[in-house]
Design a protein that fits this description.
Elements lengths: L10 E6 L2 H18 L4 E4 L6 H12 L9 E4 L1 E3 L10 H10 L9 E2 L8 H14 L5 E4 L21 E4 L2 H7 L13 E4 L2 H4 L5 E5 L5 H9 L17 E6 L9 H9 L8
Helix pairs in contact: 1-2
Length: 271
């Protein structure tokens, strides 16, 4: 399959059986992109949701089905204040879960500096670096239970650039599982690509799994475009794909329509 943008709605919803199937579908699309553009800049997300994508892509690499040697990796966000090399800094996570398994050099990786003394300058520098690199070709996204993408919490500006954000308690509670369940260890601040920055990627691919994401998914694709659900900004993008498992699709009113359109779409169109 290929990820193309010709003749498609702004948001395409693809309902798959489970997280593994979603990961394999997206990994095939990334592989197709790299065959067309070997040096593509891939924006990656952290957390448990995108792991099936990275596992499936790694399996393709090891099988010799795709060459990723010229691919570049861009980080979506980073905690502020964690010491360099902290295992839960997103730089460490991306190196561990994406860069190393794919056999890429750390030189292929770019991300914001969450330990910088001047955090605002670090935000501006990363925003500029993404543009200087030619822009993100495909940005993989997860979604929070409150509809956030990256760390753009509800009521973030839809035109926002890479900046420092204060996390909501809900997000800190959700992320405490990565810090041994201790919310006190979860930083209060992060650097995140803004929604405006994210929307500049050529293709946005959001993966959501589990019933806990169902309300956020429905608000994203069927609700109004509103800052209260930051992910709804995907409706403004010319090439956005939302891949969800059955549980995450459970509150979609148009689920049958989404299944029908995907099952009957022209083969040449790709995902």
């Amino acid at each position: 399959m290929t990820f193309q943008s010709i003749g498609r709605p702004s948001v395409e919803v693809v309902i798959v059986q489970d997280a593994k199937a979603g990961g394999e579908l997206i990994a095939r699309g990334i592989a197709d992109l790299l065959r067309r553009k070997p040096g593509a800049l891939l924006g990656v997300a952290t957390g448990s949701t995108p792991l099936p994508v990275y596992e499936a892509l790694t399996a393709q690499v090891r099988a010799g089905d795709v060459d990723v040697s010229r691919a570049r990796i861009a980080q979506l966000d980073e905690y502020v204040g964690l010491p360099a090399g902290h295992p839960e800094s997103y730089r460490s996570v991306v190196l561990r879960e994406v860069v190393e398994p794919l056999g890429l050099s750390p030189d292929s990786f770019m991300g914001p500096d969450g330990s910088a003394e001047d955090v605002q300058a670090a935000c501006e520098a990363y925003d500029a670096a993404l543009a200087a690199a030619g822009g993100v070709d495909l940005q993989l996204l997860g979604i929070g239970t409150d509809g956030h993408i990256g760390f753009n919490e509800p009521c973030s500006s839809l035109a926002s650039r890479t900046r420092i954000k204060t996390l909501t308690e809900r997000t800190r509670v959700d992320n405490a599982r990565f810090f041994g369940g201790d919310i006190a260890q979860v930083p209060h601040h992060v650097i995140t690509q803004g929604i405006g920055t994210i929307l500049e990627a050529r293709h946005l691919v959001l993966l959501a799994t589990g019933e806990g994401k169902a309300e956020a998914v429905a608000a994203t694709v069927e609700g109004p475009v509103a800052a209260v659900c930051p992910a709804s900004a995907l409706q403004l993008h010319p090439h956005a794909t939302v891949v969800v498992d059955e549980a995450a699709a459970s509150k979609l009113k148009l689920a049958d329509y989404f299944r029908h359109t995907y099952a009957n779409k022209p083969a040449w169109q790709g995902l």
